[in-house]
Write a structure and sequence with these properties.
There is one protein chain. This protein folds into 2 domains: 174 residues, Alpha-Beta Complex (Quinone Oxidoreductase, Chain A, domain 1), CATH 3.90.180.10; 132 residues, Rossmann fold (3-Layer(aba) Sandwich), CATH 3.40.50. The protein contains 11 helices and 18 strands. Strands 3, 5, 6, 9, 10, 17 and 18 form a 7-stranded mixed beta sheet that branches. Strands 13-12-11-14-15-16 form a 6-stranded parallel beta sheet, with helices on both faces. Helix 6 links the parallel strand 12 and strand 13.
Length: 340
């Protein structure tokens, strides 16, 4: 069996490579829907260092996907089952370090082929079933949801018990999903969202309050906070969080920045704050994601706000169309309907 893999060979250039999938030990999947991630977009546009591009290209993009089982030699899955493939692949066991933080783990569309291919061959242990009732266009970005679930799980471990008020800085996709997961996990906590665009803040109607970062009441304080901004602006977000967080609070850092970000360590020390980072996710986070979605149909309804343009892909030209559509999108996800 020959499989076609659509690899980014240089920024903006996608070529077809033919591979032979492993059908003796791996489950064979047919992609149904995919979602374009900002990390994919950085590679596609060449917004990574020359060293990173040289080291990781060529590779197939996309690590957010929902697929249908075509064949499983192991018997764990039946043909036709709908699953989400986990893009992180650990290569060694570790009783202390989570699979998504091990330096030896492989991650799809980051140095290893992502899911932009006609068929996906993958270890059955890297698959999570999608419950009935979950829109497949939402399941397409279950990986991003699982990243927020992972961050909240780490928050469970690192934060103290007082959670009267939690703040989320960032009105983009990551901020929206993280806030939604926090509201589902801590329904009795006050949830406040801080952003820069009033139109995007309007989507956070489930929150207990939304604030433009230029108009935050001086006496508004939170017990814990999440930074979901990223880039150069994360410096200002972290600074504002430190001003508005109570002593001994925890700050979850989730925004990605290509350059170092300054932090007011004096006030971190004075308040006894706990800063922790979160990145990617593992199988357990995907499983918890599906449990949360199943138990919270309202969350699924809110996530529908993130489904942006759905681009049917039948050719490489259509792949370029999907990435071009996503470039100008400030909120929501560009969804690829795989019809090749």
């Amino acid at each position: 069996m020959i499989n076609q893999v659509y690899r980014l060979t240089s920024p903006g250039i996608i070529d077809v490579a033919c591979t032979v999938p492993d059908i003796k030990n791996s489950v064979l999947l047919r992609p149904l829907y995919m979602s374009v991630c900002k990390a994919d977009q950085r590679y596609y546009l060449g917004n990574r260092s020359k060293e990173a591009l040289k080291a990781k290209l060529p590779m197939a993009l996309i690590h957010e996907c929902v697929a249908k089982v075509e064949f499983d030699p192991t018997g764990n899955f039946k043909p036709g089952e709908i699953v989400v493939p986990v893009p992180n692949t650990p290569t060694e066991d570790d009783d202390v370090i989570a699979e998504n933080y091990r330096l030896t783990s492989h991650f799809c569309s980051s140095g290893y082929d992502g899911f932009l291919r006609d068929y996906i061959d993958i270890d059955p242990g890297r698959l999570v079933r999608v419950p009935e009732g979950v829109d497949l266009k939402i399941a397409a970005f279950a990986e991003l949801i699982s990243v927020a679930v992972h961050a909240v799980s780490r928050f469970d471990k690192f934060s103290h018990s007082r959670k009267n008020a939690i703040g989320v800085w960032g009105d983009g996709n990551v901020g929206f999903i993280t806030a939604l997961i926090l509201k589902a996990v801590y329904p009795d906590s006050k949830l406040y969202v801080f952003g820069t665009v009033y139109e995007k803040l309007a989507y956070f109607s489930f929150a207990d309050g939304t604030f433009h970062v230029d108009n935050v009441p001086a006496d508004l304080m939170v017990d814990h906070a999440f930074e979901c901004v990223g880039g150069e602006a994360s410096r200002y977000a972290v600074a504002q969080i430190i001003d508005h967080i109570n002593p001994e609070g925890s700050i979850g850092l989730m925004g990605v920045s290509e350059s170092p970000v300054g932090i007011n360590t004096r006030m971190v020390l004075e308040k006894g704050l706990n800063l922790f980072g979160s990145s990617r996710s593992g199988v357990a986070d995907f499983e918890r994601t599906m449990q949360i979605l199943s138990a919270n149909p309202n969350a699924i309804a809110y996530l529908e706000n993130l489904v942006g343009e759905v681009v049917s892909v039948r050719s490489i030209a259509d792949i370029h169309k999907a990435f071009a559509s996503d470039i100008s999108r400030s909120f929501g996800k560009t969804i690829i309907k795989w019809e090749k």
